[in-house]
Amino acid sequence: QVQLVESGGGVVQPGGSLRLSCVLSGGTFSPHTMGWHRQVPGKTRELVASVDRSGTINYSASVQGRFTISRDIANNTVYLQMNDLQPGDTAVYYCNAHGTPIIPYNYWGQGTQVTVSS
To answer: 103 burial class (0-12, 13-18, 19+ CB within 10 angstroms)?
Structure first.
């Protein structure tokens, strides 16, 4: 059974940094795309950043220049380095791994809370 296990969330003051990690277990394949989404109560889940197997990266405009996504393909792990965190970044962060329309699959982690507060 494929699982995405996240770690690294927590509480940080504005301007601080956190690093999230997510490892895919239970599968022998390398996902086409891995990434991070976030959600706050009452709002839809939104893409934060993603990286595919070719290294193509996408960031949401709200995190561009502050967050950095990276991926260890050999170990099926994706990271999100978050710098200059602001209260608006407070959310539950979810790891995602998905395929393509030709080979479709979509997996989610359980989520990790990130709280930015003074």
So the answer is: exposed
